[in-house]
Structure formats: C-alpha cells, structure tokens
Amino acid sequence: MKENAKPDQEDGPERDELRAMLRHWPAPAAPPEIEDALRREFRRRRSRGRRALWVPLAAAATLMVALQMQREDLPPKPAPPRVPVAAAPSAAPRHLMAEPYRVSGSRSAAAEPGGTRRRPSPAPKEPEVVVEPAQAELLAELSRKMWGMRQAVPGTTIPEMPEGDVPRYREQWETVAGEWPLVEQSVPIGGR
Amino acid sequence: MSADSTSGTDQELLEATRGGDENAFLEIYRRHRDRIYRFAYRMTGSPDAAGDVTHSCFVGLLENPSRYDGQRASLGTYLCGAARHLSLRCASRAWRERSLAALPALQPAPMSSPLERLLEDERARVVREALAALAPLHREVLILAEYEDLDLGTIAQIVGAEVGAVKVRLHRARRKLRTALEAHMRSGTLVLD
After folding, report:
1. Contacts of B22 in chain A (CB under 8 A)
2. Which of B188, B39, B35, B48 is nearest to B123 (CA)?
C-alpha cells in the first residue's frame, strides 16, 4: 500500500494541534469473537462447497448409470416397414389349409411341440402380420405394383377427395338424380 | 499452521483462501482487522456496529473473492472501501442508537487517577461528538487521513472520488472540526496535553 506516499500539504502547527485533540478518542482493538465467527463461517462454507461439489458429481454418475440401464432394456430399433412377403403358395389344395398361416420370422417357423403354449414374449421383435394365403398373394402383388408406381413417378401420393363433393351432390339431388345410376326419380326427397 | 499460510503476500494468501486454506484466510484477517475495525468504529460510533462491519467485510471476501482486483488497489484499500460502504449504511442507525453505555471501557493509562480517567473519558466524548457532527463524506476522509495516516491517493481510492475532491473535503472537515472543538477548548472541557 502506498501509505503516506503523498503527504497532505496541510501540515503545520494547526494540524498537529488538531491531531492531538483527535487522539483523545482512541479506538479499541477488534474483539476476538470476530475471528472465531469468521473461522466458523469459513469452515461452514468450505464444507458446503464440498457438498456442492459432490452433489452434481453424484447426480451425473446416477444419470449415466440410469441411461446405461435404459439402453440395455430397450429393444433394438425396429426395422423399416416391409411389406410382408408371403410364403410361396403351397402346392397343397387351398381347402386343406384350415388355419391361416403366419407371415413372420421366428414364430412362423417355430412349431409348438406337444401343444404346449409358449409364454408370450413381452415385446415381439418384429411386427406380426397374419393373413390368409390368398390375401398374402394379393398383398404381395399390390406391393409389387405400388413399388413399380413409386419407381415410375417418385414422390407420387394418392390424391385426397375434397370434402365439399359429397354435400354438393346432396344439395343438387334433383338435378343429378337422373344421372345417378342406382337411384330412380321416385325416391322422396325433402318431403316432396 | 504452515509457514506458507502466513508468509505470503495478500494476493498469495487470497489464492490459498480460494483453495480452502483456513490459515491463509485468518492471516488476511489478522493483517487488516485493526484498521478495518478502527475505521468502522469511528464511522459508526458503536463497537457492535464496528464488529458487524468488520465481520461482513471479510465474509464478503469469502463470498466473492473475484470482486477484488489486485491490479486496481491493494487488499487493504479494497477492504477499507468495503468497510466504508457498510459503515455508511449503518452509520445513521448506529448513531441514533448510540449510548454512553455502549462505549467500550477504555484501557486506563497506568498510574492514572480516577479524576484523570474521568477527564480522559470526557475528552473522548467531546471528540467523538464533534466527529459525529460532521457529514459522513467529511468524517470518512478525516478519519482515514488523521487516524489511519493514509495518503490522499489511497483515500481517494477508498471513497471512490478524485484526489482533488478528497483534498477539498479534508480541508472543510478540519475547519469544521476545529471550530467545533475550539468551543470546548475555550470552555475548558478539552484540555490539551
């Protein structure tokens, strides 16, 4: 500290006299209780700081463990949706196949020996699609056609029917009644 | 107590305090406590308020050690500035609540008679009341200059003013104090040594 580096210019007998007067009011020394209080405060803050350091560390460790456990419990990511490819049509006559067969990976192949029921698994790994043989063939055919359409015109979507079409037909029923293939003019409309 | 905890500079002690060294913190306190306590006592006129101010100063250093910038001022100047701020806040309340009973018992001078002690207490009361009558801005520069022997630059740093302003305040404070004490000197209350 640069104490008394630049002494006050008002030195002189008047100032000495004033100083002598001021010395009549001495100040006591700092009481020792302050030091004790500061020591306690320092220790309290230090222990609190250590606690404050451990809390985020413990929270981070708990979070990491929880994330790891959750990652282990999660099923694997589902495969992109595939159109179920039907099994090759059996050469056996259709009437011999009494029950629909399953188009699936593991379950379709797994025969249940002795009629014992297998405990259902809580989370099947692949979506199960149950179709009949004819439906399977139709679905396969449809998927092939859709795939072909999408390949021909990428980004094509099925157009939606505008909502106003049906009410318009109902309001102008008389004018279109003759054009409607299955409705005769004798159908009563609006109390006529 | 380790040697490093007590022999370093204020800056080194402050760094050790940040690292959790209790002895370093207490060494900082011991180095600066007297000046801080004396200044707060003369500003507030109350030993209890002076104790509170001193405690708060050093707790503030614990709470926000980064507030102290060693490039701008010394730690003693910084602590004096904090004590000044706290003293001004509680000065008016402390002076309102002051009482003679709150004054600490001064250490009697050796071989002093009861009459001498009575006279000394009376002189202290007169000086104390004359100082209390000063405006806080005048009182603080007078205390720092006359009691703590600080130079004008350091006082200017503590009170946050220009050196010229400190000079003017100090001059006016001395003139007012001399005027106030002359009346007691004429009446014989204040007997100079």
Report:
1. 39, 42-43, 46
2. B188
**A130 forms bridges with which residues in the sheet?**
A102
DSSP letter (8 states) at residue B71: T
Rounded Cα gap, residues A113 and B179, in angstroms: 117
* Alpha-carbon dihedral B149, B154, B155, B159, rounded to 10 degrees: -150
Half-sphere CA count of B123, side-chain side, radius 13 A: 20
Secondary structure class of B19 (helix, strand, coil): coil
* Mutate which: A4, A8, A44, vs B, most B CBs within 10 A: A8
Q: ipTM, 2 decimals?
A: 0.78
Residue A74, both tokens:
């999660």
**Structural domains present in chain B:** 8-98 (1.10.1740.10), 109-193 (1.10.10.10)
Q: What is the mean pLDDT of each run of 10 residues along chain B (193 residues)?
A: 66 88 92 94 89 93 86 91 90 56 52 80 88 91 93 93 94 91 70 50
E strand or H helix at A130: strand A129-130
**Length of chain B (residues):** 193
Q: From the list A4, A30, A38, which residue is nearest B151 (CB)?
A: A4
**Dihedral of the alpha carbons of B93, B91, B74, A38, in degrees to the nearest 10:** -30
Stated pTM of the model? 0.57
Residues B146, A3: C-beta atoms closer than 8 Å = no
